[in-house]
Amino acid sequence: MAKAEAQEAAANEIISSDPATGREVGRVSVTTPDEVREAVERSRQVFHMWKTTSFAERRRLVMRAREVILDEMEAIAELISAESGKPKGEAIALEIAPVLDLMQWIARSAEKMLRPRRVGIGLFGLLGRSSRVVYHPLGVVAIIPAWNYPFSIPLGEAVMSLMAGNTVVIKPSELTPLTGLKIGEIFEKAGFPKDAVQIVSGAGETGAALVEAAPDKIAFTGSVATGRKIAEAAAKNLTSVVLELGGKDPMIVLADADLEAATNAAVWGAFCNAGQNCASVERLYVHESIAEELTRRIVEKTGKLNLGPGIDPDVSVGPMSSERQIRIVERHVDDFREAGAVILTGGERYDAARERVSDAGTSEGKISASPRHRVSASLFFAPTVITGATNDMRPMREETFGPTLPICTFATDEEAIALANDTEFGLTASVWTRDIARGRRIAEQIEAGSVCINEHLYTHGIGQTPWGGFKNSGRGRTHGLEGLLELVQPQHIHTNRITLLPDAWWMPYSPAALETFRGFATKFATGSLLKTATLLPQLWKRIRELMK
């Protein structure tokens, strides 16, 4: 009986573990499907009140939530690091700081962006008509984020939803459940109405229950396979979705690029968060004339990176999130080897490489790691630089989501563009050149939602800009004006200020009506005031006919 009770208890809770050490961080009760439905219903009830609050009140509460985060920043960063494995510095730089910036921006800007606006309606305006668009909140927004950015993604999407007048239900990743609960706690401490933001915890079953509970919008970040399932399930209730589904992002380095800047960006873009970014540099295309030098620099800088638990300020690369994820990386590296690519550095788990790590913390070009760490290391994968990669190799086509940097060469701009676009994904890309005009020409030909010139990866942290992808990288946008408009429904209000005269298109029809309609098609519909003026006698004839 005791064993059965233990198994039942295990099924009803999530155990959060530190991927760096394997230690238990905490436990969270699983939200049942019935409880998920009840949460959505509570959220819907609160919505009817919340949508009537002023922008000033929403702004006050969001700015208060910022203060809560600032007061607890160190503890929040340590929690993010413990659950996700990322260095504490990255938790602050890539999660907390960007979302704080987004919060102040959307709190101060949402009212202006959602202000009712007049719509130009052309010549209809001369007939005493006018049109305007007003924006209404949707209702309940369900947020299902990924584990790689467990704080910034759901918190940013929640704040934008709340400023638009919606209420929110968040289903955090089962790998980072405590960070999800912390988000709910922040809104509670800030004084938001009870149930305006709710957290439901669990794995796939909980997420499926949230989708089936028919919220008014779903924002999902994750894999293409799961995104398809969510879109299919959401379609049953005609629930609209925003899907951010990952990428295989290219970095193009032209012959005239600043090599030092490109090198640093490539190392950071490929290996930050252990490569577990949908916008990581997963394919580097470099002009053949500078390939050898750029590669040499990248290998040199990669060899200086410290691996270890994220709590250490000297650590640059933490562990992978899970055994499942590290196995994907291992398989891709093996595939590269078998296809003839060359592994210049890394290429294996840290525990396999650690015997070569000297007491000084260096490793003869393979891996650098701080010797004072004595961790389980089973989820650490050495930052890996690969040359001789080609687009027909499987790992160049599938998302790796790990610390690998495959390098391929090109001869012309046209070839670089073709290589970059040769993928089912299209989230982000970057072009590196001193010729900004040339960089823009290339950027506009790349099939990706965001293309940077002499930058890479970090633009998710600029809340004012839209985030989302082309092709299988997703549908819809988060962040920016475009993301805010995903969270409201526009209502068109049309007014006729002249009611004394009948409309020429009203019934009953007649030969005069037919002649007038021909005039609408050939004169009025041109948008030309001069041509429309020639229609006035026929129009007046028709109106007099209707007034009899």
Radius of gyration: 28 Å
CATH fold field value of the largest domain: Aldehyde Dehydrogenase, Chain A, domain 1
The multimeric state of the shown protein is: single chain
Number of strands: 20
Share of residues in helices: 40-55%
- Let me know the average pLDDT: 93
Write up this protein.
It is a single chain. The protein folds into three domains: 39-246 and 482-490, Aldehyde Dehydrogenase, Chain A, domain 1; 250-456, Aldehyde Dehydrogenase, Chain A, domain 2; 501-547, no CATH class. The chain has helices at residues 2-11, 33-50, 55-71, 73-84, 88-113, 152-163, 177-190, 204-212, 224-235, 259-271, 291-302, 323-339, 350-353, 413-421, 436-443, 480-485, 511-522, 529-533, 536-547, and strands at 13-17, 24-29, 117-119, 129-137, 140-144, 167-170, 197-199, 217-221, 240-244, 250-253, 283-287, 306-307, 342-345, 368-369, 384-387, 404-410, 428-432, 450-453, 474-475, 488-496. The chain has 19 helices and 20 strands. Helices cover 42% and strands 17% of the residues. The protein is globular and about 95 Å long. The strands form five sheets. Strands 13-15-16-11-10-17-18 form a seven-stranded mixed beta sheet, with helices on both faces. A six-stranded mixed beta sheet has the order 7-6-5-8-9-19, sandwiched between helices. Strand 6, helix 7 (177-190) and strand 7 (197-199) form a beta-alpha-beta unit. Helix 3 (55-71) runs antiparallel to helix 5 (88-113) and helix 4 (73-84) packs antiparallel against helix 7. The chain is α/β, with parallel strands linked by helices and 548 residues long.
